[in-house]
Amino acid sequence: MSENKPLDFKSLGLSEDLLSSLKKLGYEKPTPIQSESIPLALMGRDVLGCAQTGTGKTASFVLPIIDILNSQKSKARMPRCLILSPTRELADQISEYFKKISKYHKLSVSLLIGGTQLGDQDKELNKGVDILIATPGRLIDHINRGNILFNDLKILVIDEADRMLDMGFIPDIEFICSKLPKIRQTLFFSATLSKEIVKIGKKFVINPKLVEVSPPSSTSNSISQKLVKCNNKNKLSLLENILFSLDTQNTVIFCNRKKDIDFLSKNLMKKNFQTIP
Ligand code: AMP
Q1: CA-proximal residue: ligand 1, atom 15 (nearest)
Q2: Which of 19, 31, 214 to mutate to test the pocket of ligand 1 (most atoms within 8 A of CB)?
Q3: What pLDDT does residue 102 have?
Q4: Which residues make Cβ contacts (< 8 Å) with residue 207, sequence separation at least 6?
Q5: Does residue 30 have its Cβ closer than 6 Å to ligand 1?
């Protein structure tokens, strides 16, 4: 966080109601992603945010959304905010977070995720929902059944965009966005901002402000790190050489896509390594 950033929630421009909710939750000061994103979101700017889980990124969009939407009510089937999440679990966490923070507000929050009856969700939509938190597949089901109208949509949040990419959801997000008003505010968050993610993000935002914060924790002192530069072609053979030369019992390898894990696991097994993908 840059040194001239405000260090208390009040200076971010949040309402008194929210400030007292935050006090009750025991939040003393905003995290870096909150200091950067909240004033921009309250100004109506689009945000391309790079923040991992644990940095307080959920509150960085939940808090301004509450203040932006608080003065009005949604009409039946016309949510004013849509939050897209790659998984049911994350959608559920965001919903719980809204409920915790907006206890003293009258905003209605609804979850559209798989594993719940479409009919029950339809009844909720009909009552009028301010904030809709959805996974792409289930939302598309409702869109195709004509259960939702987006004419009144003001804010779109795309959360964990890099996971959306890994899970093959980008075409779904494109379809959903084609149904939304062009004039809206979009907050796009990803744990990493690779060139690919920035390119995808730019399809959904207009003149965004880029916000990046460093990861919440640094590497433990007991772990030594090395960087090996290589090109895509010799990556696998280089990894195999490193594994052969290391005198270790167990190794953990992180990849950024499921398909890379499968590929690596199959190839390492061919070289007699035991792997658990
Ligand atoms: P997140 O990165 O959104 O998953 O948040 C991680 C955790 O940090 C959650 O348990 C939040 O309740 C908590 N948290 C978020 N913002 C703050 C803050 N400003 N002060 C203290 N805890 C916070």
Answers
A1: 56
A2: 31
A3: 77
A4: 45, 46
A5: yes
Q: How confident is the model at residue 2 (pLDDT cuts 50, 70, 90)?
A: very low
Ligand 1 atom at minimum distance from 30 CA: 19
> Given strand 185-190, what is the order of strands in its sheet?
109-112, 131-134, 81-84, 155-158, 185-190, 47-50, 209-212
Helix (H, G, I), strand (E, B) or coil at 203: helix
* Spatial distance between the Cα atoms of 105 and 242, rounded to a whole number of angstroms: 56
Note the pTM of the prediction, 2 decimals: 0.80
* CA dist., res. 155 & res. 181, Å (int): 10
Closest by alpha carbon to 77, among 148, 160, 146, 20? Answer: 148
Distances (CA, A) of 168 to 60, 88, 177, 243: 26, 15, 16, 30
- Nearest-CA residue for atom 5 of ligand 1: 56
Burial class (CB in 10 A: 0-12, 13-18, 19+), 165: buried
What is the C-alpha separation between 121 and 105, in angstroms, rounded? 22
Ligand 1 close to Cβ of residue 27 (< 6 A): yes
Angle between helices 195-204 and 170-178 (to 10 degrees): 20
pLDDT tens-digit series, residues 195-226? 999 999 999 999 999 999 876 555 666 677 78
Q: Say how far apart CA 235 and CA 51 lie, in whole Å.
A: 28
Based on its alpha-carbon atoms, the radius of gyration of the chain, rounded to whole angstroms, reads 21
Q: Which two tokens stand for residue 172?
A: 């779904």
Query: Is the shortest distance between the CB of 21 and ligand 1 below 6 Å?
Result: no
